[in-house]
Please model this.
Amino acid sequence: MKTIRFGIIGCGLMGREFASAAARWAHLLDLKVRPSIVSICDKNTALYPWYRGNFASITQVTDDYKALLANPEVDAVYVAVPHNLHREIYTAVIAAGKHLMGEKPFGIDQEANRAILAACRRNPNVFVRCSSESPFFPAMQKVCALIESQSFGRIVEVNTGFLHSSDLDPNKPINWKRMIEFNGEYGVLGDLGMHALHVPFRSGWKPRNVRAILSDIVKERPDGKGGTAPCRTWDNGTLLCEALDPVDGEPFPMTVKLQRIAPGQRNTWYTEILGTRTSVRWASTNPRLLEVLRYTPGGDQAWEQIQTGYEPAFKTITGPIFEFGFTDSIQQMWAAFLHELDTGKPLHRFAGCVTPEETALSHRLFTAALESQRLAATIPLEE
Model:
C-alpha cells in the first residue's frame, strides 16, 4: 500500500482528529493509499506528548513550520491554524511542493484567498483541497445521489445551514474566533460557511446575489484576566441568495443559515431541498434519518422516513446495520483526499473534498454578504 507522509501544522482539536483518523486507517477497505504522521508543528508544546505517545512514526517535532516544510520526509501537510495565518502558511506549503489540506475559509479575506489560488496556479503539480465533512454522512450521500440523478424536477427552494450553541454562554471567555484580527471580518461566515455550502457548490448552485442579515449578539466577553474584551466578529448570519440550477437554467431561492448562537442546537448541519418531483430533508440532530417526499401529479404528498445505516462512500469493515458519526465523516473526508491525490480523480462527484475554486466562490459570497449587511441591500456577486 502506498504511504503518504504527513506533517501537521496546528496540533489542536482538528489536528488530533486527523491523526486519530490516520491511526484507524485499517477501518477502511479497498484503498490503495494510507497516511503516516511523520512531523508535527505547533507553538504550544503542551500538545506534543499526545502525539508522541500515540504515533511512533513521528520523527520531527518543531515549533517552526518552515522547518517542517524543509523536511524532505514530508509529502503532504494538514494546516489547522487561525484564519489570519492561512495566506502565509498555505502559500508556503504550496511553494514548498507539499500537497495541502487546509481549513476553511482558505484565507482571512478575499485578497488572501486570491493569493492562495495564485500559488496553486504557479504550482499545478501540488494537490490542494479544503476540509469539510458534511457530505460524507450516508444520508447526505443519498441526497447527493438524488442530485446526481436529477430527481428533484424543478428546484423550488434550497435551505442549508450549520448551527451550534458554543457561544450561547455570555460568560464563556473570548477566544480567537471572536477576535477580528485573527478570525476576520467574515466572523461566523468564514468559520462555518463551507460546511453548509459544500454540497450546493458541488451541485453547481452558484449564488447570483445575496441579501445578508448578520448579528453581533454578545458584544463583549471575559478576557481571562479579570476584565472584558470586545467581541468584534459576527455571531450569526442568514444569507438569502438567488441561485441558478445548471440543469434547467431556472432560478430559485437558497437560504444559508450560519449560527454560533443557536439556542437548542448542539452542533447541527442541515439540508432541505424542495422540488416539484422530489423533496428531501436531513439534519445531523438525527443523522440516520433521511426524509424523502416523492410527488406524483394528482397524488398524495407524504414524507417517507428512511433509516440510513453505515453505508458511506468509502467501504469500511463496519456493517450497514450500525450507526455513523462525526469521527467517521472525518475519516471518510480524509479517504477522499488521499484517494483523489493517489488516483487523480474523486471516487465520484460528491465524494471529493472542497476545491480551491469552491473556496473562491465562498469568498465572493461572503464579501458580498458583508456589503449587503452594510448597505441593507441585495448585492450581486462579482464574476
In short: The chain has a mean pLDDT of 97.
